[in-house]
Amino acid sequence: MYIAQAFNSLHDWWRYAVGIMVVVVGVFVFSLPHIVAVFIKRLNAEVDLLRLDDVNYLMSLFDSNTNLVFLLLPFVGGLIFLFGIVKLLHKQTITSLTTSRKKIDWKRIFFAFFFWGIISSGMVLLDYYLAPESYIDNFELNRFLVLAAIAILLLPIQTSCEEYLFRGYLMQGIGVVTNSKWIPLVITSLIFGLLHISNPEVDKLGYIIMVYYIGTGLFLGVITLMDEGMELALGFHAANNLFTALLVTANWTALQTHSVFKDVSEPESGIMDIVLPVFIIFPIILFIFSRVYKWSNWKDKLFGTVIEPSKDNYKILD
């Protein structure tokens, strides 16, 4: 039913193609402050043009809090432009893009947020307790408070932009075009994962880490389809990025922050990076969510056909 809601709006395939292009424009427009800032440094002879394709070099040009703002601003533009295209080009409500329920279930969002926030933070603290030599104290109160303000304000927007684009807009768009549920699930998970291919983690750990990114996209897509809405995915994704940004950073990660701890260990692509979350933790969370929200009919919800509802029998979930 979640995907089928797009049938109640203007859902021609070309509208989604135009929509993606508009989102890209929004991302670019909100990337201009970073481009301008780099250009100003270039005028002051502070930038080596030959190294602008080096992510680590770009990150070294500004303080990490400033870098975080520059990194997250494009997602603000992407989300604003995406919401605009949904309303103006598709004549669709944000609620129907978000969920099959009559209104967005904020309890679901906050449940997933605190559930995963507590677990992910606990895992970091447990690792710190078991291997304290792998961490150094990175806490500076003033910089951390600035980080917290930036992260709390912008990181949920960043994660919401990704969720609304992949688990919302593209999931529904590909679903109504192909009349399939598994096709958009697979395609959005692959695209979501591949868009992380330029992350510094890939250079450090190798392409095997893509299993984690694609697996995370698949996990978020499954909970969206099974729960008939994006609320759990929105909460989970926001918690994952926010608590990580505040708690721990490393020189080889995409998010360089003034966090509480800094991981100085030599990373290895193994059980902690891929096997544990993708093949153990995520299935356990799926089981917990399924029990809490009484999910059933997995085969149809994940692999069934998307059928256009008639005006007479279309219902909204309570």
Please give a handful of descriptors for the protein shown.
single chain, 318 residues, mainly alpha, 3-stranded mixed sheet, 13 helices, 3% strand, globular, disordered C terminus
Q: Treating each run of at least 4 consecutive H or I residues as one helix, how many helices?
A: 13
Sketch the topology as an H/E string, one letter per element: HHHHHHEHHHHHEEHH
Radius of gyration: 20 Å
Low-confidence stretches: 314-318
Q: Shape, please?
A: globular
Using DSSP, what is the number of strands?
A: 3
* Largest sheet: number of strands, sense, barrel closure: 3 strands, mixed
Helix content: 55-70%
- Strands of the widest sheet, in order across it, are 1-3-2
Q: Which class best fits the helix and strand makeup?
A: mainly alpha
Distance between the termini: 13 Å
Strand fraction: under 5%
How many structural domains can be distinguished in the coordinates? Answer: 1
Topology record:
Elements: H1 13-29, H2 32-43, H3 55-60, H4 64-88, H5 94-98, H6 106-130, E1 135-137, H7 141-178, H8 182-194, H9 200-205, H10 210-227, H11 231-247, E2 248-249, E3 261-263, H12 271-292, H13 298-303
Parallel strand pairs: 2-3
Antiparallel strand pairs: 1-3
What does this entry look like structurally?
The protein has helices spanning about 15-30, 30-45, 55-60, 65-90, 95-100, 105-130, 140-180, 180-195, 200-205, 210-225, 230-245, 270-290, 300-305, and strands at about 135, 250, 260-265. By secondary structure, the chain is an all-alpha fold. The chain has one domain (about 5-305). Strands 1-3-2 form a 3-stranded mixed beta sheet. Helix 1 (about 15-30) runs antiparallel to helix 4 (about 65-90), helix 7 (about 140-180) runs antiparallel to helix 8 (about 180-195) and helix 10 (about 210-225) packs parallel to helix 12. About 35% of the residues are buried.
